[in-house]
Amino acid sequence: MDCATLDRLVETACAGATVDPADALAVLAADDDLVLSIVAAAGRVRRHFFGRRVLLNHLVNLKSGMCPEDCHYCSQALSSTADIPRYSWLSPEQIEQSVAAGVAQGASTVCLVAAGRGPSQREVERVAAAVAGIRRTHPDVKICTCLGFLDETKAATLADAGAHRYNHNLNTAAANYPEVCATHTFADRVATVRAATSAGLSPCSGLIVGLGESDEQLVEVAYALRELAVDSVPVNFLLPFEGTPLAGGPSGAAALTPLRALKVLAMVRFVHPDVEVRCSAGREHHLRSLQPLALEICTSIFLGDYLTSEGQPGAADLATIADLGFEVVGRDADAGEVCWGHDERVLSRRSAPASIT
After folding, report:
1. How many of the other CB atoms lie within 10 Å of CB of 94?
2. Cβ-Cβ contacts under 8 Å for 151 (sequence gap 6 or more)
3. What pLDDT, on a 0 to 100 scale, did the predictor assign at position 312?
4. Distance of CA 285 to the CA centre of its chain
5. 77, 67 Cβ separation under 8 angstroms
6. Which runs of consecutive H residues, i.e. helices, occur in the chain?
7. pLDDT tens digits, residue range 314-337?
8. How far apart (Å, rounded) are the C-alpha atoms in residues 243 and 166?
9. Is 354 exposed, middle or buried (0-12, 13-18, 19+ CB in 10 A)?
């Protein structure tokens, strides 16, 4: 990979088209000496579509632990013995307290998360009531929900209550999925993303890096997300919790150097040039002192803690954003063009995804 190749990738991406799978693989395989050039190239694409804007997200873990699924990476899985908080549903007052804290720090998007295979109708109605309450108190805040598998009817209930987005990650490539979970399939996850989209919710779906996947599988899941036309792609880096099947095993997380993590983020940006790419869980651990470079590629981050792990203090993230000369959406900049609309204009820019041979 050389500067001419990177210029070609930038030209393709800035036209709203995805790069060729071979080029995406080349980004992952590039020498570490080229990482700063790759980040700069991906940054040109990021700035072309999003300028200096950064979207801040705040997580609210509605209930913690006791999930019946066996996702090997997850500290909340039923088989997990990880030392995490375990509690049932938060009260409306606790939800409002958490939301208010996130909004006070600058978050313009609130993510309501409840681990489980999928919500019952009663649980969907509980979350819908929480969504409606947030909309009344914080009318300018965007709301994403993440509740596991659901059908179009349940998704419509959330949309009618005022939810804007639904998160359901593909996590890894189809071929690698049986190594990650045995209680559901990759196809189940795809079906939920499609149901949320059909119900009018903005689809948010991403991946976890460090699940023992190959470079080819990383590229494969990036293109699978492109095919689903998702509006937001969270990129998570595995934190192998002690007490989970992937802790201490050959998960690939140990090989995630800061430079490797940046190459993955850049690859995702080139495949998804015109949508929100979020640097998500694990960034503090795997990017370490290179975290600021992630914002040259990504347009959003989580502010504060994650579901069962602590994040960087929000004040530190805000200071980094200011030092880079970026603008926080909802505080310093207009959010109107930040990939919240799953609309004809955005979709028309996207070329058909190429297949991996």
Report:
1. 13
2. 195
3. 65
4. 16
5. yes
6. 3-14, 21-29, 35-50, 92-105, 121-137, 152-161, 186-198, 215-227, 258-271, 283-287, 291-294, 314-323, 344-349
7. 788 899 999 999 999 875 444 444
8. 29
9. middle
CB 247 within 8 A of CB 241: yes
- Report d(CA 190, CA 16) in Å as an integer: 23
> What is the spatial distance between Cα 93 and Cα 313, in angstroms, rounded to a whole number?
23
Structure token pair of residue 302: 């989580």
Angstrom distance (rounded) from CA 56 to CA 317: 10
Model confidence pLDDT, tens digit, residues 72-107 = 676 766 676 666 677 789 999 999 999 998 998 889
Collect contacts of 132-137 with beta carbons under 8 A, ≥24 apart.
Answer: 132/161, 132/162, 133/92, 133/95, 133/96, 134/95, 134/96, 134/99, 134/110, 134/162, 135/161, 135/162, 137/96, 137/99, 137/100
Please list, in sequence order, all residues whose beta carbon lies within 8 angstroms of the beta carbon of residue 267, skipping any fewer than 6 positions away: 24, 27, 28, 218, 219, 222
Token pair in block for residue 313 = 């203090």
At 55, list the tokens. 């979207």
Q: Which amino acid is at 335?
A: A
The tokens for 308 are 């069962």
Each residue's pLDDT tens digit, 196-224: 999 999 999 999 999 989 999 999 999 99
Tally of CB atoms within 10 A around 351: 11
pTM (2 d.p.): 0.89
Round to whole Å and give the CA distance between 62 and 334: 29
Structure-block tokens of residue 24: 């995406």
Classify 59 as helix, strand or coil.
strand
Kindly state the tokens that stand for 180: 């990650």
Tokens 């310093």 belong to residue = 332
pLDDT value at residue 321: 94
